[in-house]
Design brief:
single chain, mainly beta, Secretion system C-terminal sorting domain-containing protein, ten-stranded mixed β-sheet, 782 residues, Immunoglobulin-like
Length: 782
Amino acid sequence: MDVSNYILLLRCFSAPNIFCGGLLCCVLVVSPLAAQEIYPVEGSYRTNLSPGGSGVWSDPLIWLEYDGIGWVSTASPPGRYNDVFILRGHEVVLTGHEEVGNLYLFGQGESPGRKLNLQSYDLSIFGALRSLGENSGGEWILHPNAHPSTDWIYPETGSLVFRGASRTVVDRNSWSGVSNYSRFTVRFSPDPDATLVVNAAMKATEFIIESGTVLQTLNTNGTPATSTFSFNIHNSFGAEAFGSLTVRSGATLISEASAPSGQILRRTGTRPAASFILEEGGGLILLGDRPQLEAELVQLQGTVIYNYDGDGQQRMLAPALLTSQTIDSYNNIYFEGNGAKLLPMDLFLTGDLVASGGPVIGGTTHLTLIGAQDQRVDWPGFFVSDLSVVKDGGTIMLEQDVTVARDFRMLGGNMDFGGNSLVLNTSMIGSYEYTGGFWLRLNSLTINNIHFDGGGSGNVYPFFDDYLAAPRTIRLHAESVPSNQTITIAHIQTPGTTLANGLIDEDGTEIYYLMNSHFSVAHAGSHTGELEIWIQGDDMLLNDVSDLRVAGNGTAATGFHVEAALEGSRIWAKRSVSFEALQAAAFALASTEPLSLLPIEWRSFSAVVHDGNVQLAWQTKVGESTRFTILRAEDASLDFRVIYEFDASASDESFFFLDNQPLPFNGHVYYQVLAWDQDALISASPVTSVRTKRNVDDLPIIFPNPYLSGDVQVRIPDRAFRGDVRAVVHDSRGKLWMDVEIFSREDAAIFGTALTGYLPGIYFIRLVAEDLNYSMKWIKKY
């Protein structure tokens, strides 16, 4: 079920006269007139105090109970299944936590008096909160306004807590946000699968959505108005920003708010709230085309979903007040619905960006990907004005081609393009900056109107060799290049090396080995000058740096050899070519020395995944006092750690080691072996790796997917049951459906059976264990 249909379904809860709690439904009879008369039902309570009097909630003497005919004395105070009417001039004091069905507070006239002294306790409401008045005949009627001039519910240490099943909790015909002295906390804590509809503005000192879903409506009964959350306006709470709204982990706020018909949150029309906090694991779903939020501090640590099906464009969250925080930082963003979504001028993202449905327009946006966690970007038509990658950890998984109109800054972190392409500077006026990070599985790079600054580092493009798990950065050096020149670099990755069989380079030097992976470089433009191409090869084990050079794809490369150079710890193979010769010209690393690429002391070195473990094997001749150190790393920065050491026997030439430490489900694990003679390093093996994502049998599976009927089977790999497995299920709106632990295959079967009872929709299932962290998307059609 999509969000729009979901909202239509929720409208059934807008009838103000029905609430359900447990197995009992209470029906309050309300007349259909404009000023709706209220007729109490059997079991309702009303206060029985003198004018201006006060009493304790738990004292039966302050209450009268309706027996279906009249009001009579009662032996017990009201509870969860009772409607409660607190009348004019009466105040009730809580001395403990209490419960109520529907709660009516007399709010008509100039001095209705204080109504509730909560002290530090919770009054849990399982029905609705309404304002009460009287008509000229003295009958009770729904009153459209909460009282503006008295702190009639107080103090802020107490809470009104909405619990129970789905329903409307406040409605426009019986509540409002004009209760300017509000001094209490509102908490929404319904059943996890319940939705509470807020169909009128509310004012308090704090709002907390603790569980379930809260729907904030754009009420169109009369002048369209958002059911805004706002706060006490008086300066006893400070003259500036005040009040907070927090969405806890596992809870969701759905808002129809749209300017100019009101904000999601504010203090007053000219002052912002103090804070809006969306906690990690919380959800915010925005349905309006111009959602507006006024808060001095905004933290969106959870998932924000923009869902819009209109003909115009949905804008992202923004304030109107100068004292409100600019909202440009998100964790996860999902775009849904067929309407267009317009990105802001600046957007900072620490989590995922997933777009489905209508177009996402980012032509004027500077997108910055930051943080240390992995990120997923699935955006068909990914196009931004400017892109900055400023990560200090994690990998960005890109599932579509990426186009940048102007400036691209690659300042740190890894980008996994998944075989897609990167196109830069389509505006022809942009710039490129690189200081760190790598590009994994980048199929091709196109640089329009390429610019060379003449500096010593040249233009650096950090490709990565996935088969050798090593950087394969390419650098371009040129001078006096005119405008309107375009370079396209394709990275063709193929494992292994090829014996050159007597291949002779242009300078008469014989080439012995060629790397099968290579670059294809093409040029578009009129320039005919010279270009130097440098390819990083410091993972090659060389007898001498001069052994390394650039060849073609099984042939000598176009252009002329330039001697390889060592810069710090990096080795660069070089080739000089003319721009006009770059017509899909191939360039690969090669060696002119038969022992260079794999030194004789390491005749072989391999790593193979078997039954969830990694078996290392190598062959080399060792001396009497040789000691091996085995290193392991789990990221492309090759930050190795020691996992084992042992002394070798001089009579052995073949060695084996079984690494039974947990493997990540996606990515590479890298290994290297060091050989020592006492305290002196003799030699280091080549770096080898295993690619764990290829082992499909080691991945969790859910089927059928999409689901139509029958049983749901969830298969979890055996090695995940070394410890407990936690299963967390959210829907596409970020709502939590399940969070359970799975101890066995029998539990997995029960988990699958539970999924069959879900509503149709898209669900994200995350399985977490000691050596497992895997997410799956599951579609239930019927």
